[in-house]
Inverse folding.
C-alpha cells in the first residue's frame, strides 16, 4: 500500500481529543458516578436498611445490574472469538469495540457484587472460607478468568497500534506518550512477534468461548440451584446465554453508531456493518424469543400451585407492564425493524439496539424480583413492605452510577486508544489490494 494511504488510515483512526460535546458527556457520566458514590457511602454508613431490600427480596436492583453486566460482557466472545475463528474479516472494525465493552462490563459486574454485600470488609471470607460446592465460588472463578482473558484479548492486538502511536509523538501529550511507551515500546513489528501474537490471539479466542459460556451458565445456576418458583428450571443456562448474546450484539450496534458519528468513521464502519450486525441481532432475538416461550410455556401449561402466583404476576399482575414492555422492546420491535433491509440502515439499527439494551435490563430485573416475592412458603405475619419491592433512591443512584462508570471506561478508552485497530486495517487493506491486483493479472 502507498505510504499516503497508510498515513490517511492512521490519521483517520488516531485517538481524537474530546470536543465540547465530549466534555459535556464526560461531565454527565462523572456526575452520575459521584451521585452513586455518595449513595454508597450513605449505604455503608447506615447499612442496607437504606435500600428497599428486606428479608424476602434480598437480591434487588444490584443483582439485576450484575446479571445485566455479565450478559453484555459476553459480546467479547461473540465478536472477537466466534467471528475471528470463523475467518469473518468484516468484523475487524468491531473487535476492539466489543472487547472494551466486555472489559468495562465485567469490571462493574464484579464491583456491583461488593456493593450488594452489607459488610464488604468481609469479602476476604469468600477466599478463606469458600466452599467448592457453592455456585458463588464457581462464579468468582469464571468471572476472574473471563476478566483476565478479555484483558489479554484487548491488549495483545493493541500492541502494533501502540507502536504506531509512539512514532507520532507530536499528536499526543507528553503524559500519553510516556504511557504508550510503557505499554508498547517492546513491539518491533517483526515477523516473529507477529507470529507469536497471532498464535496467542487464536489460543485466547479458543479459550474464551467455553469460559464465556461458563460465566453465564454458572450465573444462571446461582438462580436455578435456589429452590424458588420461576428459577426451578433446567432451561436457565441456555436461556441466559441466548439473552446475553442478544444484549451484547445490541450494545455493539449502539456503540458502532455513536463512534461512527462522533469520530466520522463512515469509511470504516459502513452501512454494510450495520446490515450484517442487524441480521445477527434478528437471529439472536428470535433465538432468545424461543427460549422465553420455552421458559414460560411449560410451567404455564402445568400451572402448579407454586408457579401459578409467579406466572400470573408476570402475565397479568403487578409486574405485567414491565414484563410485556421488556418482551416487546428487547425482541418483538427489534425483529420487526431489522427484518427489513431498510431497517438495517445505521439509524434504525441504532434504535433497535437501544431498545434491545433497555428491554434486556428490565428483563434481568424481572428474573430477580418477582421470584423472590413469590416463595414456595407463603408470606405470613410480615409487614406489608415485605410483600413488595421498589428500589430506594440510593439503589437507583448506585445502579445508575455503575452504568455510567462502565460507559466512562469506554469513553476514556476511546480518547486514549484507537477504537478501530489501525495496523489490522492497514494489513487488511493491503491484502485486499494485492488480491485485486492478482485478479486483474489473471484476467
Amino acid at each position: 500500500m502507498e505510504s499516503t494511504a497508510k498515513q490517511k488510515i492512521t490519521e483517520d483512526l488516531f485517538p481524537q481529543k474530546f470536543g465540547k460535546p465530549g466534555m459535556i458527556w464526560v461531565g454527565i457520566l462523572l456526575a452520575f458516578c459521584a451521585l452513586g458514590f455518595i449513595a454508597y457511602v450513605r449505604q455503608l454508613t447506615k447499612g442496607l436498611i437504606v435500600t428497599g431490600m428486606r428479608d424476602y427480596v434480598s437480591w434487588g436492583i444490584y443483582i439485576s445490574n450484575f446479571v445485566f453486566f455479565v450478559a453484555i460482557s459476553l459480546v467479547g466472545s461473540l465478536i472477537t472469538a466466534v467471528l475471528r475463528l470463523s475467518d469473518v474479516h468484516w468484523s475487524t472494525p468491531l473487535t476492539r469495540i466489543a472487547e472494551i465493552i466486555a472489559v468495562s462490563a465485567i469490571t462493574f459486574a464484579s464491583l456491583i457484587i461488593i456493593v450488594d454485600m452489607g459488610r464488604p470488609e468481609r469479602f476476604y471470607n469468600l477466599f478463606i472460607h469458600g466452599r467448592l460446592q457453592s455456585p458463588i465460588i464457581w462464579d468468582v472463578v469464571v468471572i476472574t478468568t473471563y476478566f483476565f482473558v478479555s484483558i489479554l484479548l484487548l491488549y495483545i492486538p493493541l500492541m502494533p497500534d501502540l507502536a504506531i502511536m509512539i512514532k507520532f509523538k507530536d499528536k499526543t501529550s507528553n503524559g500519553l506518550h510516556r504511557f504508550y511507551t510503557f505499554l508498547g515500546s517492546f513491539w518491533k513489528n517483526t515477523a516473529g512477534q507477529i507470529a507469536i501474537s497471532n498464535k496467542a490471539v487464536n489460543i485466547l479466542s479458543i479459550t474464551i468461548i467455553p469460559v464465556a459460556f461458563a460465566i453465564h451458565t454458572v450465573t444462571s445456576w446461582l438462580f436455578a440451584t435456589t429452590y424458588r418458583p420461576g428459577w426451578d428450571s433446567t432451561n436457565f443456562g441456555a436461556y441466559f446465554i441466548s439473552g446475553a448474546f442478544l444484549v451484547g450484539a445490541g450494545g455493539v450496534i449502539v456503540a458502532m453508531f455513536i463512534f461512527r458519528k462522533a469520530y466520522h468513521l463512515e469509511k470504516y464502519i459502513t452501512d454494510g456493518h450495520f446490515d450484517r450486525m442487524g441480521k445477527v441481532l434478528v437471529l439472536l432475538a428470535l433465538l432468545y424469543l424461543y427460549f422465553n416461550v420455552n421458559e414460560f410455556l411449560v410451567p404455564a401449561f402445568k400451572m402448579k400451585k407454586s408457579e401459578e402466583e409467579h406466572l400470573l404476576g408476570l402475565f397479568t399482575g403487578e409486574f405485567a407492564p414491565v414484563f410485556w414492555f421488556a418482551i416487546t422492546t428487547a425482541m418483538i420491535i427489534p425483529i420487526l425493524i431489522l427484518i427489513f433491509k431498510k431497517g438495517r440502515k445505521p439509524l434504525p439499527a441504532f434504535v433497535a439496539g437501544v431498545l434491545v439494551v433497555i428491554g434486556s435490563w428490565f428483563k434481568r430485573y424481572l428474573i430477580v424480583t418477582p421470584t423472590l416475592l413469590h416463595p414456595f412458603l407463603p408470606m405470613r405475619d410480615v409487614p406489608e413492605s415485605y410483600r413488595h419491592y421498589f428500589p430506594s433512591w440510593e439503589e437507583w443512584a448506585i445502579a445508575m452510577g455503575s452504568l455510567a462508570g462502565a460507559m466512562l471506561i469506554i469513553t476514556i478508552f476511546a480518547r486514549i486508544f484507537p477504537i478501530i485497530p489501525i495496523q489490522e486495517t492497514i494489513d487488511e487493506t493491503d491484502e485486499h489490494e494485492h488480491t485485486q491486483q492478482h485478479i486483474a493479472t489473471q484476467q
Summary: Residues 35 and 397 are 6 Å apart (CA to CA).
